[in-house]
Amino acid sequence: MLATLTAETEADLILKSQQGDRNAFGELVRHYYRRVINVVYRMCGDTALAEDAAQEAFLRAWLHISSFSRGEPLLNWLYRIAVNAALDILRRRHEEPVEDEMLQRIPEQSSGPEDALIEKERLALFQQAVRSLPEAARSALVLREYGELSYQEIASVLGIPIGTVMSRLSYGRDRLREVLKEQILQAESEYV
Amino acid sequence: MCENMPTLLNAYLDGELHGRRRLEVEKHLVSCAACRNALQELHAISDLLRAAPVPAFLPAERFVAQLILRLNAQGIALQLPRRPLRDRVPKPAAWAGWLVPAGLLGAWFFLRTIFTLTTAISAADAGGLLGQASAWFTGGQSQALWVMAINSLFSSQMSAAQQSTLSLFNQVSVFSGDLFSGFLWQALVVLLYWGWLAAWWFRHAPQPVKMVF
User: Does any CB of chain B come closer than 8 Å to the CB of residue A98?
Assistant: First the structure.
């Protein structure tokens, strides 16, 4: 686990990055990488795509770091870039269904191989359900559940009013519930 | 579930309702089983989302190394701002380096344009293509109107000295009239030229960078 950055250290690293110091930017990437890639992964539903999108996001962040205003948290700024990078990558892939081979890399926390298999199937099912959501609802939901942002922050990151955040989250969760019910029913019927 | 409740239940679940609105939702939940069930389902969905396992991504060190390699491979480092924006004001010496040759080139191009136009108009005038209009920009009068009037009224009463003075004033007047009319159309050409240049500049001026990530 990485040590927490103090506000002063972060401000210093941002300033150095804005002056072209790559090591300082590397420190910022190291610090925010986990959180950014987790959000991007939930957007893409595929580990390889998520790693590509995270690279793209940090690359864009580096290019535009001089325009970063300290009026907002750096993480929110990175989330904004990351969500757009993920959506761009997905659009380039024409929303092809992806088989996430990297699911094999899930750390085995379950008690046995059967449980591990069930866990992986569950994740695959879940990722598929999240990816089936429209982009707008998915972005809001991912930022809320995985980015742990407040409604105000989501509104700021996505550039939409709070009322729209509320309706997108409501729609997203409702749709997710329906899709998961369908998938579970389908899985059960196949099992029987 | 009751109408308008889904959005409020989501906000309640996320801890985004406060004060009176929160109390209203809590009061409603006590009396409405459908909304209680809906809230439970929302809780379950949220828990499932958060409990979803995370794959083993690239270690942070390796990710950063790959990122730096990509920056180097694409030559992106060259485009990076090496100094904050406030320090990037060009110095006068740096401007002068290219302003002098650019200014000389502009002046040469400008004079060349004027010369070409003048030659073309002179040729057209010599060929009789401009007719009476040539008098407008070449002058064409040997005596100013006011001199003609004085001559017709007082020529018999004027001494030789007065007539030579009047002739001198006449020459000055005709010369300045020719000069004015000559400069008038050239000034018009200059204005048109700079107008075109300004229009071209506005059309091709660098646009501010659009901050779409």
Answer: no
